[in-house]
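Notes from hallway chat w/ T.B., transcribed later so I don't forget. T.B. wanted the structure written out for a chain they're using in a teaching module, and asked if we could keep both sequence and structure tokens in one place. Agreed to drop them here.
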Amino acid sequence: MLAKKALKLAGIGFLLGIVIGNVIAWATGRPGSLVSLILIDRMGGEMPAVLMQVFFSGLYGAATMSGVALYDVERIPLALATALHCLICVVPYIPLALLLGWAQKPSEILITACFQVVAFFIIWLIMYLRCKAEVRKLNELQKEKEKGGENT
């Protein structure tokens, strides 16, 4: 069941990775192109560069999304699952950014990696607070149900 969920998430992540990879390339590249000049030079043309970017962005998206399945493994503490998922999201970005020409300088990679860590924890905090509120609501409903059962 967990493997099935991870595969489903990986498929969704592959598609999201392609979209996000193109947005990153567009934001960091030259006007009118979805790939960096560095990648075009490396690949010997724009079409091979686009295909490479699509493939590797998709793989990156698949890896990061499938990492969400870590939270479903009950024997892994939440803090460890969070740390592992964060590593899965941030560490592969560094060689990917270098490979695809999204960043060339160590400072650019460090800045974007820091943005990723901050964004990761903001999203995690939002999800955590939503789940915590849902658990609180379920606990209140359970208490009401128990009180109702005592009165009968």
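Follow-up for T.B.: DSSP finds six helices and no strands in the chain. Might be a good example for the class.
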